[in-house]
Amino acid sequence: MGEPAGAEGPVAGDATGPTEAEWAAAVAAVRDLPPDRRVLLICHVNPDGDALGSMLGFALGLRRLGYRAVQATFPGRPELPEAFQAMPGLDLLVPAAAAWTDPDLVLSFDAASASRLGELADRLTGPATAVVIDHHASNTRFGTVHLVDPTAAATSVVVEQLLDRLGVPLDVEIAECLYVALATDTGSFRFEMTTPAVHEMAARLLATGLRPGEISRRIFDTRPFGAVRLYGDVLRRTRLEPEAVGGRGLVWTYATLDDLARHRQRPPVLEPLIDSIRCTAEADVSCLVKQVAPGEWAVSLRSKGGVDVSAVAVALGGGGHRLAAGFTGRGEVEEVVAAVRAELPGTGEPGEDQG
Predict the structure, then answer these.
(1) Which residues of the chain have pLDDT under 50?
(2) Which fold has domain 20-220?
């Protein structure tokens, strides 16, 4: 799940998705560009499966259309979780420092605000057309052309529609990227946004010859042993506050840079850890606080339906979806969790340590 962590607040958009005029503008932005011009694709910091898969799937689509100068990138450290290191299109990835500063066309994927693009945000404020492709209701409508569909289960849903309008047929490589994106943002097709249309899209992707079992093992069921040990340490300190959120319950834990160093793991390995606490029966809201620097934390929030966690994240400078959101917190971990607790509806005093 893409989890915006910027300073901008949400701007209400069309709940039904892009208009025909917006689709036409996005198609024209691509079609009117000569194939030798430079196209820069950007997704958000710490990319998840939807951000990376949507971006690489579209990059491969541009290659099929004959575009020869295509770069894909994201801000921050140029590292990916091990689960994504066999995806098609990785040869198009470049570090942020090597990304063109003056591209002819820019496309942003799965970022609800420009701040989620970090040091690459300035690429969307230059003379080039900037197409924003996203599915977050909290999208701030940055850029110049907006394909934002809050009703879509994943950004990859919007990407597939744009590829279709551009006349790009699905092949097995594009399909794998979009399948990874769709499967991760729907929690292996378990989350509330999994509609008949989602399964129909999955069927189109599988029809190209994908092997879903192999992809699922790689994405969901493969972890380094060091990560398994790390997860054990982090889960051991999990706290349950059953009286929080008006009795709906809050469960939370945190991971530090020392945890990563002790088990010789890199930060991306922490991304799936939220799923290990969100299953807690006694809590509607789960919170994972991940240290990214001294005094700085990436915070992931999840809800089972009783709370709109995007409202919490927006109040703290981030954004996301009703059931999944995030923000960047600063200070000590207890201060960050206290800020979350204060924004949750009906929250009382912290509960006992259940870990």
Answers:
(1) 1-14, 348-355
(2) inorganic pyrophosphatase (n-terminal core) (3.90.1640)
